[in-house]
Amino acid sequence: MQLKSVAVTDFMTNCFIVWDEETKDALVIDPGGEAPRILREINDNKLKICGIVITHAHIDHIGALSDVKDATGAEILLHEKEIPVLNFASRMGAMFGVKISQPPKPDRLIAESDIIPFGKCSLKVLETPGHSPGGITLMASDNKTCFSGDTLFAQSIGRTDLPGGDYETLINSIKTKILPLGDDVNVYPGHGPSTTVAAEKRFNPFLH
Questions:
Q1: What are the structural domain ranges in the chain?
Q2: Contact, 71 vs 43, CB < 8 A?
Q3: Which of these, 72, 78, 80, 62, lies nearest to 39 by C-alpha position?
């Protein structure tokens, strides 16, 4: 599995592009903005986008959703509990002083244990609410890579003061879904640098 990270907009959201090197089938995870940069990476690597996976529907993770879908024709995958968050996008943008047109609806709803294939690789859906009601984490079929959205960051956690957020739910999601994945698993969060499960067990102040 190949992986490219593109940090987009003033929110510095990590948009991830993952692909099977042999088939060039690929997924885009959280196209938060700056669609031309994301599409340039796709074109430069000659990738065929099979799906656009949204870990949660806050505006900083969906800003380029319409443009990337229009350019690639790929289906949008989202958890059912994130639909109200997606529908609130333009109003949430106004709260943060960001103008965002209402994004398209998901083509397919995803839930716990669903498998999202791309070539010979795949991502498994783990439901990790707390930052957002339908927030998910994605575990790669290489068994050493996961994408945690805004659930878990390097030595931090996602905020829980936005609508639908809940601190206890978030901590439970991390402890029951992400930490058991294994100490050597690399965690790629929605913002900031990557980390490992082992490092978060040892150094994350919110988990002690």
A1: 2-207
A2: no
A3: 72
- Where does residue 180 rank: exposed (0-12), middle (13-18), buried (19+ CB within 10 A)? exposed
Look at residue 92 in the predicted model and tell me its pLDDT.
82
Residue 60 in tokens: 């900083």
pLDDT of residue 115: 98
Q: Which CATH class is domain 2-207?
A: alpha beta
CA-to-CA separations, 132 to 45, 57, 80, 89, in angstroms, rounded: 32, 8, 12, 13
Interval 66-106: pLDDT, tens: 999 999 999 999 999 999 999 988 888 877 888 888 899 99
- In the sheet where 195-196 sits, what is the strand order? 115-118, 121-127, 136-140, 145-149, 186-189, 195-196
Q: What is the pLDDT of residue 99?
A: 81
**Whether the predicted model's global pTM rises above the 0.85 cut:** yes
Q: Is 68 helix (H, G, I), strand (E, B) or coil?
A: helix
Asked if residues 158 and 152 have their Cβ atoms less than 8 Å apart, the reply is yes
Residue/partner pairs of 200-208 with CB below 8 Å, 24 or more apart: 200/152, 200/154, 200/155, 200/174, 203/155, 204/152, 204/155, 204/156, 204/157, 205/155, 206/156, 206/157, 206/171, 207/171, 207/174, 207/175, 207/179
Give the count of beta carbons closer than 10 Å to the beta carbon of residue 10.
9
